[in-house]
Amino acid sequence: MDRVKHPTLRAAVVLYVYFAAMAAGMVELSLAAGYLAGAGSAAFGMVVAGVAALGAGLAFLAWSLWGLHRNSLVMARYALPVLAATASVHVAVTAAEVATQRSLDVSHFAALGLTLMALAGAGWLRRQQKTNDGGAHGQPRTGRLLAAAFGAAVVVASVATPGLAASMAGQHAVPHGEHGQAPGGESGQGSNPALDPGHHH
Predict the structure, then answer these.
(1) Burial class (CB in 10 A: 0-12, 13-18, 19+), 173
(2) Contacts of 76 (CB under 8 A, 6+ apart)
(3) Rounded to the nearest 5 degrees, what angle is found at the Cα of 81, between the Cα atoms of 80 and 82?
(4) pLDDT tens profile 70-122
(5) What is the pLDDT of residues 130-142, one digit of tens each?
(6) What sign results for the dihedral spanned by CA atoms 147, 151, 157, 160?
(7) 3 vs 54: which has the higher pLDDT
(8) Cα distance between residue 34 and residue 57, in whole Å
(9) Distance between CA 10 and CA 148 in Å, rounded?
(10) Which pLDDT band holds residue 191 (cuts at 50, 70, 90)?
(11) In this structure, are residues 15 and 148 in contact, taking their beta carbons and an 8 Å threshold?
(12) Contact assessment for residue 81 and residue 63, using Cβ atoms and an 8 Å cutoff
């Protein structure tokens, strides 16, 4: 069987595309939180950027969940231009940050990488749909598909994690070892006045 028609390859690329899109959606939502709730959030430009990032994040998440449910490339006519436009925006923002502040916005750079990953995979699937059925009527091999899914998840996570960590939400996240602790580092019993033996009403 010709390689481009291999059902396992097609199914693996579908997973790769939607894993990347889902991670891009989460990074977009973290960017939206920074624009809408961070410093200078009252400015009109920040509100517009926040709303745009929020819309992109929700759209990416919805598209990826729908595509995973259908196990195929859905709304390709609209998805490819939207992915390309989103990537262009992130290129512009990243370039502007480097030019004006001499710093790299890791969250935008991660969103760019994830968007390009989804765009490349979606473009490949789109070409297969135009030339053949892409192996849609075959059965992928489970073992190889699981290995491909694991590999795709690792690659996507390696790009998404720094982007999320660099966002406002990531910077304000409580480290796992500090949950339930008081600001001074003491154990969490004192963080709740109702549980503090020395607290009197």
Answers:
(1) exposed
(2) 122, 125, 126, 129
(3) 90
(4) 989 999 999 999 999 999 999 999 898 888 888 788 889 999 999 999 999 99
(5) 665 544 555 667 7
(6) negative
(7) 54
(8) 13
(9) 11
(10) very low
(11) yes
(12) no
List Cα–Cα distances, 159 to 22, 163, 200, in angstroms.
12, 7, 50
Can you spell out the DSSP letters for 24-54?
A: HHHHHHHHHHHHHHSTTTTSHHHHHHHHHHH
Is pLDDT above 90 for 175?
no
* Residue tagged 């997973």 (tokens): 15
The structure tokens listed for 33 are 């939180």
Residue 50: what residue type?
A: G
Sequence letter at residue 86: T
Cα–Cα distance between 82 and 103 in angstroms, integer?
27
Query: What are the tokens at 94?
Result: 């990243």
57, two tokens: 């994040």
